[in-house]
Amino acid sequence: MANTDSVKVRVFSLNCWGIRYLSKHCRQRYAMIGDMLCKEEHDIVLLQEVWSEKDYLFLKKKLACSHPHSHYFKSGVIGSGLAIFSKHRIHDTFLYRYSLNGYPYMVHHGDWFGGKAIGMAILSIGSLTANVYVTHLHAEYCREKDSYLPHRVVQAWELQQFVRHTSAGADVVILGGDLNMHPQDLGNRLLRSYTGLRDSFLETDEFDGCENGLTLIGDNPFISKKELVPFEKGIRIDYILFKGSTKAEIFCDSMSTTKGSVPDHPFPYSDHEALTAELRLESHTPAETGRDKQSKDSDSAAEKVAELVDIVTEARTEVKVGLHCAENMRYTATRTGAMGLALLFLELVIAAVPWLALGAEQPFPRTSFYLLAMLCFVILLTTSLLYIFYTMELKSLQGTEDQMRLAVGSLQEKLRGFPLAQPHNAQRKSPEGREPSAFDPEE
Amino acid sequence: MANTDSVKVRVFSLNCWGIRYLSKHCRQRYAMIGDMLCKEEHDIVLLQEVWSEKDYLFLKKKLACSHPHSHYFKSGVIGSGLAIFSKHRIHDTFLYRYSLNGYPYMVHHGDWFGGKAIGMAILSIGSLTANVYVTHLHAEYCREKDSYLPHRVVQAWELQQFVRHTSAGADVVILGGDLNMHPQDLGNRLLRSYTGLRDSFLETDEFDGCENGLTLIGDNPFISKKELVPFEKGIRIDYILFKGSTKAEIFCDSMSTTKGSVPDHPFPYSDHEALTAELRLESHTPAETGRDKQSKDSDSAAEKVAELVDIVTEARTEVKVGLHCAENMRYTATRTGAMGLALLFLELVIAAVPWLALGAEQPFPRTSFYLLAMLCFVILLTTSLLYIFYTMELKSLQGTEDQMRLAVGSLQEKLRGFPLAQPHNAQRKSPEGREPSAFDPEE
Predict the structure, then answer these.
(1) Closest Cα partner for A279 from A196, A190, A175, A434?
(2) Quick one: pLDDT at residue A441?
(3) Cβ-based contacts of A399 with chain B (< 8 Å)
(4) Percentages of chain A per state (helix, strand, coil), in multiples of 5
């Protein structure tokens, strides 16, 4: 056996925009997607927004020959919308639900009902163990005044934690999905810096697709250009990321996206563009490249830690903004609830007065009385539910802030361990089977 | 440096029963717990049911010298109640919230509000990386008719998944907490078989404590013996579990529990007994014991897989029972909601009749009308919320069932790979840094 084995892996990712009866041409588009996947025979297919299990089962049936292994991740009220199809055997799956995901009363945005999550599947590709992740983060509805930003930052934080902590045993890591973040957005930097995941669009040797790798484009007939302002041409929010380990290196040979239309079809697969990355996995005997990579990377390790400290600090600020908002909202709910309670109490007093002054034969305004009582009751119930919800939101935000504070402390401690004069001391201890560029503060 | 380094680690676990104003002598007990921990100086202290952050901060202040590192895990409405104090630096923490955790309307049980979770902390103990987990599972209120059993089985399933997937990079794994399961309960077998975690009570060389290691005993003054029937003496539901890796072996030298009272104090620390385990970690150079252990374990690997298939199948049955229950509950909620809607419709028709027959001067029964409308509204709101809740429960149960089915398939595939005649082929590929006895279906 040669020292280096090379395996090609084609990865596909698409946000299917699959809201039955609401998304345009939903059934026809699933049929198109099924036909294309059946023909293209990608190794790994990562789908988002497959909101209906029926559509998943339709694809599963259609891809039974080309992709015998699949998994649909269930979560929330509607589902996580995440599905994976694979030519390689799926040995194990695991789901992590984001602790924050919008608000249940923002029904028209609907993110809360989706139960957004990270789906993980462990695959064997040849002799390598691949951890494959698929995820979909909370949408950004208004970039200028993005009230969901703290939620998305917490999701990005949990995503990097989950990937980092679950991938220590993996030889290669592949993550695909709709991150709903621009390439340089805080959450994206957090994810890439902490995990060491690399962006296939930036790493590829060949690229064929939309300008700048855009995945939500103005030329797509399902997109209203107005919504994209000030990014008329489009935005890049869907990604295929990857990283190797000391056991295997991973390269992106080529990458492509659809360009807003599909030849011979009247409309595209979805409102998002589909991504395809051709990855090449090269497995080594552990001793071979580990040391080369280590010495190469140790030079920049201190810089990376310093950068990470900045990013986590920025993320912490964003989470604090969210904390402040949630506290305000909870305070408003409490105050409204207290007003409802006071009103109810006032009503009871008014009712008790004629009851006490039995003789007075004034007509009691029953209708208004019951209407008002009903109003008080609804106010009390709603504010109680909101109070519970905001308390849970606060706990999640506080918990994340605590973790981030700990992380900054740990990183700063690590930074002190890098004497500027001796950069080669930097990575004294590199755990086996881990990519040294992937930054683990637990070391 | 010698080939084998030995480090002693003392681990403490206690369910503090810390419901402010409700748990008896709560403040005094925290003061006692603080004094004892300060004096005993355990390496790792794992606490559950620290419901109030104020109590955590009280302990943190008290233990600032003996345990400079600590973390409090926030989740749910009240909190997860989980806290960790450590003499060794905590580098990183991560929290996994169980997807199922009782029902919000079972307010008197309160588990739902607690947001039960698994807290993970990554510690450096000497040159070793230790993954330390603390958790608290849903309580069992009635063993004969345990309506929460499916929830607890799902929690045990998620616990084993979380430990298994996050510990691949760890040299040693320590888990402590109130599992609310007897030693041979399904969830416990699932956890131990899948992860390879060993029970310190069963593994210890020396034991000093309650008979059979009981941790919830009839002799504890805070316990009503009636509640323990038919286990008058008590039950064992708190555990300290551990496992090593190919890099380090772990042994339990001695273990002790409190015995329902504390010398020189009028009452014990809690309604649960406190556990202390003295563990010994022996680190090796990777090559040394890996191979010995591998050949020793491969003989019984096939048996272990077969056992695991049985356990997962049993767990799947339990989850299916839960699924059936949740479906019934959702059906009941739907039916009740439909009745509320019909009633509201009927009311509107009745109201419309006198309005249409304008001339008729019959007195309209306003009071009953508004009362009934209020009732309809409350029914509709409540059943809608219940419908959403049960749908989320169903999704979680279905998701777990899917994962279990996949796991059984994967295990059976593995079982076919063990030819009875060649038991030594069994573990052809053993990933580095992992304990071969810890059973990983992703291999």
Answers:
(1) A175
(2) 39
(3) 73-75, 95
(4) 45, 20, 35
Q: Over range B367-379, report the average pLDDT.
A: 83
Q: List the beta strands (DSSP E) in B152-230.
A: 172-178, 198-199, 206-208, 216-217
Residue A133 φ then ψ, to 5°:
-115, 140
The DSSP bridge partners found for residue A117 are: A97
List the Cα angle B184/B188/B193 in 5-degree steps.
100
How many Å from the N-terminal Cα to the C-terminal Cα in chain B? 34
Residue B369 has pLDDT above 90, yes or no: no
ipTM of the complex: 0.85
More confident residue, A96 or B438: A96
Q: What is the DSSP letter of A428?
A: S
Q: Nearest C-alpha of chain A: how many angstroms from B362? A: 17
Most confidently predicted of A231-245, A290-304, B416-430: A231-245
Distances (CA, A) of B281 to B164, B245, B252, B284, B412: 20, 10, 9, 10, 34
Neighbouring CB atoms inside 10 A of A65's CB total 8
pLDDT at B364 over 60: yes
The per-residue pLDDT for range A265-275, each reduced to its tens digit, is 999 999 999 99
**Interval A46-88: pLDDT, tens:** 999 999 999 999 999 999 999 999 999 988 888 899 999 999 9
Write down the pLDDT at residue A413: 86
pLDDT tens for each residue of A172-197:
999 999 999 999 999 999 999 999 99
- Quick one: tokens of A86? 């694979």
Cβ–Cβ below 8 Å for B399 and A367: no
Nearest C-alpha neighbor of A22 from the set A54, A52, A44, A48: A52
Check pLDDT > 50 for residue B428.
no
A265 DSSP assignment = S
Helical ranges in B41-180 per DSSP H: 53-62, 111-114, 149-166
- Cβ A242 vs Cβ A191: under 8 Å: no
For the record, the structure tokens of B327 come out as 């479906």
Interface of B with A in 131-190 (CB under 8 A): 161-162, 165-166, 168-170
Q: Could you give the 3-state DSSP secondary structure of residue A314?
A: helix
Q: Distance (Å, rounded) from C-alpha B116 to C-alpha A403?
A: 18
Tokens of B195: 């992860």
Contact A297, A436 (CB under 8 A): yes
Q: Which of A161-165, B377-381, B420-424 ranks highest by mean pLDDT? A: A161-165
What SS3 state is found at A283?
strand
Cβ–Cβ gap B74/A395 under 8 Å? yes
Active site residue ranges of A = 272
Reported pTM: 0.86
Contacts with A395 from chain B: Cβ below 8 Å: 74-77, 79, 115
Angle at B138 (CA atoms; ends B134, B139), nearest 5 degrees: 110
Provide, as residue numbers in chain B, all residues whose Cβ is less than 8 Å from the Cβ of A286: 432
CB contact under 8 Å between A74 and B398, yes or no, is yes
User: How many C-beta neighbours within 10 Å does residue A35 have?
Assistant: 12
Contact predicate A116/A157, CB 8 Å: no
